[in-house]
Amino acid sequence: MVDVKKLKGKICEAGLTIPGIARRMNISPSTLYRKLEHNGEGLLVKDVDKIIDIVDIQGDDVNAIFFTQLVA
Question: Which pTM value belongs to this model?
Fold first, then answer.
C-alpha cells in the first residue's frame, strides 16, 4: 500500500507534477493517475523504482511512502 498523499507532497516539494513524472517514465499521465488509485495498488516495482529516482526520495521517506502496510 502506498501513502499517495505523502507521495504527492514529495512530488510537490521537488517542484514536479504527476504529468511531468509520467512523461519521464514514458507513460501517459492518465496511466500514472490510474496506477496511483486505490492506494497505489496498480504500481509495479519498476514504477516505484522510477518514481523514487525521479523524485529523489531518500531513506526513511521511501519506507514511509511505499511500505505503509504493516506485515506481521
Answer: 0.88
Cα–Cα nearest to 11, from 53, 47, 55, 49: 55
- Quote the percentage of the chain above a pLDDT of 90: 83
Nearest to 2 by CA among 60, 63, 57, 65: 65
d(CA 49, CA 30): 19
Nearest to 68 by CA among 37, 39, 29: 39
Here the cell at position 55 is 523524485
> pLDDT tens for residues 29-68?
999 999 999 889 899 999 999 999 999 999 999 999 998 7
User: Based on the number of CB atoms within 10 Å of its own CB, is 62 exposed (0-12), middle (13-18) or buried (19 or more)?
Assistant: middle
